[in-house]
Amino acid sequence: MPVVTRVSTLIESKSKEVKPRAFQRMGRESDLMLALNYFVPGYHNEFHHHYGTSQSFLVMKGELTLRTRKSVGAPVEE
Questions:
Q1: Global pTM?
Q2: Are 25 and 33 a contacting pair, CB within 8 Å?
């Protein structure tokens, strides 16, 4: 079982960085990766996808707008 660092400690340290986005891998197994993404308010990623994976998001503060497609080539939906 992976060791997971305390989330509140990571958020506090990442929020002090001057980058608009910070990433910290928290744990990894052969079929699972747990990571913390910290975004400054208003920042957004360019649309992208990861073939053969699924993702879950937990927003701890603020809002998340998720853009997705139902299939390859389909229009992007919010």
A1: 0.61
A2: yes
